[in-house]
Amino acid sequence: QVQLVESGGGLVQAGGSLRLSCAASGSIFSLNTMRWYRQAPGKQRELVASITSGGSTVYADSGKGRFTISRDNAKNTVYLQMNSLKPEDTAVYYCNAPEVYGTGSQRYYNVWGQGTQVTVSS
Known about the structure:
The chain is mainly beta. The model has no long low-confidence stretch (mean pLDDT 96). The protein is elongated. Strands 2, 4, 5, 6, 7, 10, 11 and 12 form an eight-stranded mixed sheet that branches. It has no helices and twelve strands.
């Protein structure tokens, strides 16, 4: 099995920064593309940013210029640096792995972490 554990959330004032981490563990050969999503109360879960195994990135318009996704393949960890935070960034942030190559030719699909709460006060 593969597990994703997010950390780094918390309470921050508007204009502040947070760095989220997502650590993957288990029988992993390759994580491939990794994504950060968020879900605010009463809203649908939305994609925040995505990064391929080669480092290509895609951002939602809401985070362009403020958020940076990165990864450390040796540590099986993905990061989301969030700067200039706004109250509307308040949400639970989730890490997602659409497809993981496990050891022994296994495949794991649509793996989610438990989420980490980010609260931005005005």
